[in-house]
């Protein structure tokens, strides 16, 4: 009975705190995935460029953010970002230390790590598009933007979707590392609840169960999206 009260949503329960923390984790992962999509698309374009300098820069980005431990990247962003903002603030007359919101730091840090993986996903998806379709579009004089909108982007999204699902799962787990900045995401809330009640095993098991629940739901969403996109392409192919 005491366990139910402790995990419930009453005045003495931690259920509401853990639920809000789980929602914060999802929000942080969504923001990070969006940031990563921007950086990933730019880096993929650089790696596919005919200019050697851009290809080298793209390779350097993916090597650094895939090779350096995620926790170290978060620390560098947290302390380096706060130092930078403090310096800029002092230029405009601000006094003392100026901190950067942990959510912003988390979204940027995890997002740029995600971007390194998304870049490879997008690059592989572009290379998987049939060159014959693109050459046929050029041969009939189709404008570049129209060709990208009607041929390239839809197929890239189709081929990239499974990889993006894997990157989502990776970012969801990496979001737990943001607890070191004090953001009240799921791992941080589990730590606080465990420390307050001294029920460490219970709350870490509950936290792990919530992570498994989120990943299971995510798998179902991405599997449904892949099946839906696959059916859509089959219908379009049949019409043609």
Automatic annotation (TrEMBL):
GO terms for molecular function: transmembrane transporter activity. One of its GO terms (cellular component) is ATP-binding cassette (ABC) transporter complex. Keywords: Cell inner membrane, Cell membrane, Membrane, Transmembrane, Transmembrane helix, Transport. Residues 22-222 form the ABC transmembrane type-1 domain. It is a multi-pass membrane protein. The keyword Cell membrane applies. Coiled coil: none annotated. This is Amino acid ABC transporter membrane protein 1, PAAT family. It comes from Paraburkholderia aspalathi.
């Amino acid at each position: 009975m005491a366990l139910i009260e402790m995990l419930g949503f009453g005045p003495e329960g931690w259920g509401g705190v853990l639920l809000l923390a789980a929602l914060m984790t999802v929000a942080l992962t969504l923001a990070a995935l969006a940031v990563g999509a921007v950086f990933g698309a730019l880096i993929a374009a650089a790696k596919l460029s005919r200019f050697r300098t851009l290809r080298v820069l793209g390779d350097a980005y993916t090597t650094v953010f895939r090779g350096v431990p995620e926790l170290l990247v978060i620390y560098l962003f947290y302390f380096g970002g706060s130092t930078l903002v403090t310096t800029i603030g002092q230029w405009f007359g601000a006094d003392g230390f100026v901190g950067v919101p942990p959510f912003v730091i988390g979204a940027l840090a995890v997002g740029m790590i995600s971007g390194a993986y998304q870049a490879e996903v997008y690059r592989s998806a572009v290379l998987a598009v049939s060159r014959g379709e693109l050459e046929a579009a050029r041969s009939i004089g189709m404008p570049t933007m129209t060709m990208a909108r009607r041929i390239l982007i839809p197929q890239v999204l189709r081929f990239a979707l499974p990889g993006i699902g894997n990157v989502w799962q990776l970012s969801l787990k990496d979001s737990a590392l943001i607890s070191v900045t004090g953001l009240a995401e799921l791992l941080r809330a589990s730590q606080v609840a465990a420390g307050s009640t001294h029920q460490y095993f219970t709350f870490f098991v509950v936290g792990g169960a919530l992570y498994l629940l989120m990943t299971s739901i995510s798998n179902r969403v991405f599997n449904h999206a892949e099946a839906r996109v696959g059916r859509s392409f089959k219908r379009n192919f049949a019409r043609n």
